[in-house]
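Q: My labmate handed me this sequence with no annotations at all. I'd like to see what the chain might look like in three dimensions before we decide whether it's worth expressing. Could you predict it?
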Amino acid sequence: MKSYFSLTVLALFLPATMLCYQLMPRRLRWLVLLAASYIFFWSISGKLLVFLLISTGTIWLAGIGLDRLLRERASRLRAPGANRRDIKRRYARYMRLVLAAGLVVNLSMLFAFKYLGFAQRLLAPLATPLLAHAGITFPQEAISLAAPIGISFYTLQAVSYLIDVHRQSISADRNPARLALFLSFFPLIMEGPICRYGDTAQALWAGRPITAENISRGGMRILWGLAKKVIVADRVNLLVKTVFEQYGSYDGGVIALAAVLYTVQLYCDFSGTMDFVMGCGRIFGVTLPENFKQPYLSRTASEFWQRWHITLGTWFRDYVFYPLSLSKPVKRLTSAARKAFGNRMGPLAASGVALLAVWLGNGLWHGAGGQYVLFGLFWFVAIWIGGLTEPFSQALCERLRIDRASMPYRVLQHVRTLAIIFVGELIFRAQGGSAALGMLGKLFGGFTLESFANGTVLGLGMDAADFVCVGIAVAVIVAVGILRERGVSLTTWLWNHNAVTWSAAVCALAIIAVIFGAYGAGYVPVDPMYASF
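A: Here is what I predict for the chain of 533 residues:
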């Protein structure tokens, strides 16, 4: 079960889970979801399931510990003659220690599985000669550990739970099974979205009955995600894979095409998976947070990241950016910058410290490699410079009497933002930091359209019919996104119209996916792309 869209999941695992869930008494339905989630995890990661259990156990214990300290503190504060300041300071220290212990255990597992080899490569040039003087041999053989599926996603959920308990935003859950279900729910475990405990845990536990409407509308969303994956993401995979792995053989025009197609591929694969996740959640009566909001309709780099992988962005905002921005060192830096650069530019300059931490973290969260560091730095520069230059841009437009709300200006903004996105995704997909720089050099220093003129492009894994099929599919996806941007939900309209229209739409979408989907000989289906991050 390596993909949600495999026949095993769609034709066997999901229907069996639904049947067992519905037959079970409501108060026990959570057991079906928990069992299904652990079976799903075991089918992919096997014995690595133990690390999910360790994560669940440690954050449950740490949460209980924090809750106990909070109750003890409240009791002592109510005692006659209590030294309130001393009690608060002492218990704040105890709570920080418990929080740190829970975070260290979970983040250490994430580091060991994802970053140990990367750290070894970085340290080797410095550590090898230093240790040699002491007669110690630094390990040269690359360290590579098979990571549990979804460790990046469930670790961030575990971290957010502990921090929210520490902040008293939520109460610690004394039921470890409910916490286990929150961390392991099978639609979420592979690619997210990254949920908050207060938003989803109780809904997963509630055992709401499966209804005909939820099956129909959830199934339609799953089918829409399947169509995006098999018609677009799988179809362009061979060309993208070929160019990125052998970029030295192609000119800048082909590299630009590959960057654009990879951007389309990543969206169709990742958002298609999110469609499965949202549809599956709806079937079980659970509303999960949306992870996309028409990101390619953005007008600025900052807006793009408010619309793309939304739950990851809000996680970094709430647990990295805000705490750093409100820390004493950054506050002092902000005050100094305000005096030096003024009330407008000063805070923006100082906030760059927190923003840099966010984007380095965002890049490395996706993977351990130079291309991910470059990816984070690229988006940091794009967003920070965008914020710094916005006052000048606004003043210039006012002086030149350019209407920033006019269609030409908005189109220019969209085109500029798309260009930034394509470059960012090129860096993201490159086979390492040096490859990313090499591809950028070819893109900007050796751009030609010769490969389009001599037909080379049609020999890279996509023929003319493939390009036409992808073009039409992308046009439909864009049209649906524009309607959604304007507040029109096509699925809601179809559902409210009549049963015949709805059934016809479902059948049509299924037939289109079967006829135009890319599978069989000659195609290299893409594995779930975000499952590897």
